[in-house]
Predict the 3D structure of the following.
Amino acid sequence: MEDRLQMYNTLTRNIERFVPNEPGKVAMYTCGPTVYHFAHIGNLRSYIQEDVLEKTLRYLGYDVKRVMNITDVGHLSDDGDNGEDKMVKGAQREHKTVMEIAKFYTDAFFEDCRKLNIKTPDVVEPATGCIPEFIHMIEVLLEKGYAYQAGENVYFDTSKLKEYYVLTNHSEDSLLEGVRDDVDVDPNKKNKNDFVLWFTKSKFEDQALKWDSPWGVGYPGWHIECSCISMKHLGEYMDIHCGGVDNIFPHHTNEIAQSESYLGHKWCNYWFHVNHLNDRNGKMSKSKGATLTVSVVEENGYNPLVYRMFCLQSHYRKPLEFSYEVMDQVKAAYEKLRRRLSGLAETVSACKAGEVDTEAFAQFRKQFEDALCNDLNTASALTVLYDVLKADISDATKVALTDSFDEVLSLDLTKPLPETEGSGADDELTSWIEEMIAKRTEAKKAKDFATADAIRAELLERGVAIKDTREGVVWELV
Ligand code: AMP
Ligand code: ZN
């Protein structure tokens, strides 16, 4: 197969043709959620775009294996021994054990993913399931001289690397100001960017989860989990590693440092990062209190797939600002699209109407693939869908193309909207429309086509389009 996908690679800072290590196969890893709170819709923007990447690869014919971790231990807000442990903090807040917190928020995360039609990765592995692998990697790093023990913790020694900032152009000073301004200095570290691989001494005396290790009872640092979990399931060579842009430094930088020091060779070829969703006040944060979650979006009257479409309308590498005004516009467009397409699909299946025009199908499919192959331009891919609807091709071809595109878009486009949703018409309007349609049917029976046409025009004036099908008259708000 031809490798057609062009995508931006954070490692080279260029748009490049994606060529996997093994022809036709993709080994892909996603940094999973830290399960101490509900995911906010910013986190979910990253997972939606990564889902689009995975589904695009499958659509193009690749055999994809995707692995994701669940961070249920060790995510400190700092790389030394002085940050906050997010899981412990979550457990204290809710008077539950860390494992109860982890289970509850892992389930909540997958429920959100289900609502957003985000496919569950082929392998999902919690960090607490891989402690022996972490210990093994740390032992090798110590043996090879890339790690040291200090203050009863084990640290990665960044001074042993030829190049540490492989993913960023940042100077150390700008990193200090921009990213790490809340961080106290850990006196055990030999170098500012050194990070903890294993904690045995910690200010968290109430740290709930601890394991025995060659360095004493303790728990792993955050970065080590992604290196080990990915290698456990994908081997020593990986094609694509994904995450939000905040993961670039220090998380992914540290993953590369420890993985390549451990392996002695290059580890992952392509780094895919999704830019942030911001609210009006700036970056969203799980720890900030009032969080925008999928449930909040639903409570405000939006189908979660409206949010998926909101994301697909912009490019994943650009920051995106959330607003309910834009959500309202997307909601109207989404409901109109879905009413139209589910209506078409119903007509096609009821009447077995029209053949699929294979030439037109191939031509539009190619246009759709080209949009995605252009660094995942989902907005252009949606435009191709609108072009299909406008095209002079059979309804059956339109429906077949929509179903095909929906393998990637995952917007349930040909499924009827639930009763409560999306007719956009209140009861009074609905009964008026039905009355008018009944009058028009009578007029047509009586061969009074002038009246029938006048009724159609009156309906249209009120924003209601009608269509005669073999199953009767269908209508939609336009
Ligand atoms: P966490 O659960 O904090 O480890 O984050 C889960 C994923 O969401 C990571 O890939 C983050 O990079 C990503 N992320 C965090 N905040 C945002 C945001 N505001 N917009 C988009 N992605 C984000
Ligand atoms: Zn990770």
